[in-house]
Amino acid sequence: MQVLVTNDDGIDSPGLTVLAEAALAAGHEVAVVAPHRQYSGASAALTAQETEGQLVFVDARPPGLPEQVRAFGVKAAPGLIGFVASFGAFGFRPDLVMSGINLGANTGRATLHSGTVGAALAAASHGIRSMAVSIAAGDPQHWQTARRVTDHALAWLTSCEDPDDRVLNVNVPDVAPDRLRGIRPATLASFGAVQARVKELETGYVQLTYTGVEAEEEPGTDHYLLARGWATLTMLRAPVADDAGLTLPRVDGTQSAAAGHEGEPLVDVSAGTVMSTGADAPAGEIDEE
């Protein structure tokens, strides 16, 4: 199995090495492609620095990465890395994308904003099995615990049936291996580990403050269990249409806006501009057909 390892903390993060070593130990081929700098909070953004319409690469490696593993940085958001990887942009289409290990937890509905999770979701939306791994510390002291949990999560993910457009989101407490209580499936908490608030609002600027969120009494959620020494596993889904209960008003009193009819006049819709992924695609476009 060919594995692409990425993150949102940048190419110099030791978390990349932990994931790469876990994939190597499981017998997979590994390449590391990560942003050249931190992209925390980038979600699945498709942003990048281009030179003449081409992605800019950086000659860099995460610390301690085994020499046989190919690695380089890209001046691009992690979501874009996961996205273009599905088109073979780095020399192969990965069978699995592993994103992380993020410095800090990615729990609750706040995972929407995570670049670590965004890279995995971008790959999963194109049919690539994906996982995101985070450790609940800005300066982790127990990488061996994260590696232990990653080994179990990776074995489960590669042995289960095709997870379609889902991502396995893994959170690990920064505790010694003998203090880890175990691994539990979990639902999403109502928010997450960190919450932003408007501290000051004046003409011309807004000042934000970021604070840790106490583990509220939400038994069974990722943030609740993580705060109590458990590693958590949560399945996330890439965006899907959900029109349950959707009722639209009639347009001009004639028909429902939800009704479609063949032969109706077409309107121009801009497709925007994104990165080229190959010589067959015109500059600034991606051909997904």
Automatic annotation (TrEMBL):
Gene field: surE
Per the record, the domain of life is Bacteria
The Swiss-Prot or TrEMBL record describes its family as follows: Belongs to the SurE nucleotidase family.
What is the originating organism of this protein? Georgenia alba
Residue ranges for the region (Disordered) are: 255-289
Keywords attached to this Swiss-Prot or TrEMBL record, sorted alphabetically, are:
Cytoplasm, Hydrolase, Metal-binding, Nucleotide-binding
Q: Which GO terms describe its molecular function?
A: 5'-nucleotidase activity
Q: What is its EC number?
A: 3.1.3.5
Q: Which PANTHER family match?
A: 5'-NUCLEOTIDASE SURE (PTHR30457), 5'_3'-NUCLEOTIDASE SURE (PTHR30457:SF12)
- Name the InterPro entries for this protein: SurE, SurE-like_Pase/nucleotidase, SurE-like_sf
* Chain ranges of the Survival protein SurE-like phosphatase/nucleotidase domain: 3-188
Q: Give the catalysed reaction(s), semicolon-separated.
A: a ribonucleoside 5'-phosphate + H2O = a ribonucleoside + phosphate
- Record protein name field: 5'-nucleotidase
Q: Which Pfam family name is an example for this entry?
A: SurE
